[in-house]
Amino acid sequence: MIKLTNVSKSFQTKNGVVEAVKNVNIHVKAGEIHGVIGYSGAGKSTLIRCVNLLENPSEGNVYIDGEETTHLPLKDLRHTRQNIGMIFQGFNLLKTATVYDNIMIPLRLSGLRKSEAEKRVRKYIEIVGLAGREDSYPSQLSGGQKQRVAIARALSQEPSVLLSDEATSALDPETTDSILDLLLKINEELGITILLITHEMNVVQKICDHVYVMEDGEIIEQGPTIDLFTKPENPTTQMFLNTISQRKISDELLAELTDAGTVIRLTFVGSATGEPLLASITEKFSARPNILSANIIELKNGIVGNIVVHLDGNRSKNTDVLQYLQQEGVLVEELSHIQ
Amino acid sequence: MKEFLSEFNSKWAPVIGEAIIETFQMTFISLFFSIIIGVSLGVLLVLTRPNFLFSNKIVYFILNIFVNIVRSIPFIILLFFILPFTKSIAGTVIGVKGVIVPLVVYTSPYIARLIETALLEVDQGVVEAYTAMGIKRRSIIWNVLLREARPSIILGLTIATVSLIGATAMAGLVGAGGLGDLAYRYGHIQYEVDVMYATVIILIVLVQGIQMIGNFFAARLKRDS
Ligand SMILES: Nc1ncnc2c1ncn2[C@@H]1O[C@H](COP(=O)(O)OP(=O)(O)O)[C@@H](O)[C@H]1O
Ligand SMILES: [Mg+2]
Question: Which end of chain A has fewer beta carbons closer than 10 Å to its terminal beta carbon, N or C?
Fold first, then answer.
C-alpha cells in the first residue's frame, strides 16, 4: 500500500524556487498497479522519489503499508526502504559485476545469510527469465535483459511495493511489451503493489488499474484507466490518448463533413462491438452511417472501442439517432469544427 | 664490448645497485603513505560534494583549496618550504628518511585528485539504486563507488607512481641518493656519460614495467565482458 497525502516538493535553485511537486494525493491499494503519466519535466521523477524518500517532501505525508515514513530516523528508514523496490530507466547495475553478483551483493549487504541469499538469487533469476545468464556482465546483455536483472535485484529483497521510474522508456516497443508482461506477472503472482511513472500511454493502457495525469507538478486528472480512456476531460489527457489512437479530425475535414450532416464519436466500453447498433439505426431511422474511423483499445481491465461516424441527412432526424444511441449505453460525442 | 661491460660492471654495479635500492625505498615507502592519505582525501572530496552521500559544503571547500594549494607548488620548492614540518615528523631532514615526508606531501594531493576523477566517473544512478535498497552509506562507498572505480583507480595510482619516481630524482638535494642523484652527480658533474646512460635505461625499464603492471591489473579488474 502506498499513500501520499498533500505531498509537495520544492527546490531552491539559483534562479529561485522550483515547485516540482504541488499538493499531490495518491493512494495505491495493496495489489494494484497505478501509473503517473506526464511530459518530461512534469515532476514525475521527483514525485516517485518522494515515495522512498530519496527526496524529502517539503510538505505532506507518505505512508507505506500504513506506516508514516517522512519522520523516520535513518536507521528505520533504511529498513522501510528494503520493503520498497525500485527500478529505473537506466537500469543502474554494477558494470563490474555479473548478473549473479548484481543480485547477490545487495542481498549480502542487507545482512542476509549466504545460503539464504543464494537461494533468492536463483529464485528471482528464474522468475525474470534469465536462467543461464548468471555469469554474464551487463555489457553483454540487451536493454531488456538488463532491466530484468534490475527487476530481479529489486524483487530479491522481497518488497511489498515496487516503484518504476520510466523503466521501459529506453527500450524498443517489443521489449517494452515483454517487460510490461513481466511486471503484470509479478503483480499477479507475487501480489506486489506497483506505482510507475511514464510518458508513454501504452504503458498505462497495458498494465495500470488507475492513472494520474501530471502537469507542472500537479495531478490534473485522475481515475480508473477505463474512465480516462473513455471520458478524458483535460486537454493534456486527450493529447496523451491521441498518441495511441488518432482521435482528432482536422478542422477542414470536419467543416466539410458537417456541411452535409453530423459527425459523432461513439465510445463503447466492454465487449460490445457497435456493429449491430449501427445496423439498427439504419433500420429504425433509415440513417446512413458512414464509418470514418474505428479502433479498439485493449486495457488491462476492459476494452474500449471508438467509432467516428458521419450521418448525412437533416439535423432533427440525427438528434433522434443520437438519443437512441445514448439510451443503448453508448457514449456519444458530437464533433463540430471551430467556427 | 664484453670487456667494456665487465669493466663497467665491476666499477659501477655497486653504486648503481645502491642507487636502485634507494629509489625503490623512497618510492615504495612514500607510495604506501601517499595512497593511504591520498585515497582517503579523494574519497572525502567526492563524498562531501553537493548532492553526494555526505555532502558538506565547508569540508569540501577546505579540502579542495588545500589540495589545490599543495598541488601548485613544484616539488623542489616544497622540499625546502616544509623543512620544519619534515623535521617535526621524521626527526631529520636529510637522507631517505628526510625525503619521505616531502614526497608524501607532494604525492597525496595528486593521488587525491586522481581518485576523485575515478570516483566521479561512477554512475550515480547505481549509488541511488543502492540507497533506495536501504543499504548503508559505508557499504555503498566500498561496494559501489570504490568497486566500480577500481580499474581507473589502478591506472591513476600507476600515473602517481611514475610521477613519484620523477620526484625522487630530486631527492639527491637532501642527500637521499637514488638513481636521479646518481645521474646528476656522475653523469652531469663528473661527466661519466656511461653512468648517465645506464641510469636512464634503468629508469625507462622501471617506468615501463610499472605501467605494464598497472595496465594489466586495470584490464583484469575491468573484466566487464
Ligand atoms: N534536485 C533538483 N534541484 C532543482 N530542481 C530540480 C531537482 N530535481 C528536479 N528539479 C526540477 O523539477 C522539475 C521536475 O523534474 P522531474 O521530477 O525530473 O520531472 P520528470 O521526471 O517528470 O521529467 C524540473 O523542472 C526539474 O528541473
Ligand atoms: Mg523523470
Answer: C
